[in-house]
Amino acid sequence: MRILLVEDEPEMAAALSAALNVYDMVVDHVTTLAAAEEAVSLVAHDAVLLDRQLPDGEGLSLIPKLRARADGTPVIVLTARGELSDRISGLDGGADDYLAKPFAIEELMARLRAVLRRPVALRSDLVLVGSLTFDFGHREASVGGRPLELPRRELLVLETLLRRMGRTVLRASLEEAVYGFDDEIQSNALDTHVSRLRRKLADAGVEIHGIRGVGYLLKRQP
Ligand code: CA
């Protein structure tokens, strides 16, 4: 298991690295936001332990950058700020968990195990593709920061495509996600939802590819 530790306090970092090594974890330790961004672009980690107050900025700003690359690596925020409002902003910022210093290493390990048990698709609440942001927690979409008003079924289509971004989603799976048992499904209704979504996402830097008779696939525009 490989962990990225983003922490600028030398004593804290040394103690955490030593403890994680005891649990047979490989630790990549960086001390700045810039180095963290480089590290996540170079190798896949199983989890990120992230300090908030870093010499070159707010640690939380790493999370949307991770998610922008469809990287669902779980992030546990470690910080001295243990106030409720800070915990909420940390979790709303896309962190998978939040641990206030000082903490017992056993608690950190338990939380690490917990986030690693979650299915990848559920780990991240926020996905960024092109200029499209989708918040799975609040189920809201926005393009370039502007909220996108989507009727329920378009929202469900987009959500389903984003959960399996880059992979083809079968028509049947999309229809299952969008329609209830009692809904009458018109044969071309799904295509209508998709074409409306495409229009609304025209400037968002994402593409919805149709594969005739098979399904749809959403990806970032090259
Ligand atoms: Ca710090």
Strand order of the largest sheet: 2-1-3-6-7
What class do helices, strands and sheet pairing give?
alpha/beta
Structure summary, number of beta strands: 14
Inertia-based shape: elongated
Q: Which regions contain 5 or more consecutive residues with pLDDT less than 50?
A: none
What does the radius of gyration come to?
20 Å
Compute the separation of the termini in Å: 32 Å
What proportion of the residues is helical, as a percent range?
25-40%
Task: Describe the protein in words.
The protein has 222 residues and is an alpha/beta fold. The protein is 40% helix and 26% strand. The protein has nine helices and 14 strands. The protein has helices at 10-22, 33-42, 62-68, 84-92, 105-117, 120-123, 152-163, 171-178, 189-200, and strands at residues 2-6, 26-30, 47-51, 53-54, 57-58, 75-79, 97-100, 126-129, 132-135, 140-143, 146-148, 169-170, 206-211, 215-220. The strands form four sheets. Strands 2-1-3-6-7 form a five-stranded parallel beta sheet, with helices on both faces. Strands 8-9-10-11 form a four-stranded antiparallel beta sheet. The chain has a three-stranded antiparallel beta sheet with strand order 12-14-13. A hairpin with a 2-residue loop joins strand 10 and strand 11 (146-148). The chain is elongated and about 60 Å long. It starts with a strand and ends with a strand. The mean pLDDT is 86.
